[in-house]
Specification:
Helix content: over 70%
Distance between the termini: 19 Å
Oligomer: single chain
Structural class: mainly alpha
Shape: elongated
Number of strands: 0
Order of helices and strands: HHHH
Number of helices: 4
């Protein structure tokens, strides 16, 4: 289980913020109106889903085995909640015909900016909790 925690921590603190910035640049540069989703658009939310799934697996396992009671206390209880919200925002960022799509070329930047704030804040929350 320590392996899952390590992968979750490294991916969430180091890799995912970098991927969000790179995805934002990619989506803005390659934007075309009414274009079909490309490979990055399909893979990016799945990576966030994997990160959230690993975190929830570790969180539930730690609670069930009694390894850490702090996972149910404040402020750490916000960590899994923000993770699920981050997954939803990642899917919203890549949705071709969502409400945000009216912003045109800049439509991915709004949810990806929100996602970056959630991910960085959640990493800080995990360290502080």
């Amino acid at each position: 289980m320590e392996t899952i925690r390590t992968i979750h921590a490294i991916f969430g603190e180091r890799v995912l913020p970098l991927l969000i910035v790179l995805a934002a640049i990619w989506f803005v540069v390659t934007w075309k109106p009414n274009a079909p989703p490309n490979i990055v658009t399909r893979i990016f939310p799945v990576l966030v889903d994997i990160q959230v799934t690993l975190g929830i697996i570790f969180w539930v396992y730690s609670i069930v085995t009694g390894e850490s009671a702090r996972f149910l206390g404040f402020p750490f209880i916000l960590h899994p909640i923000l993770g699920v919200i981050a997954a939803g925002v990642a899917h919203m960022a890549t949705r071709p015909r969502g409400r945000i799509s009216r912003l045109g070329r800049w439509s991915p930047l709004v949810p990806l900016g929100i996602l970056l704030v959630i991910v960085v804040g959640n990493a800080y929350l995990a360290r502080a909790g």
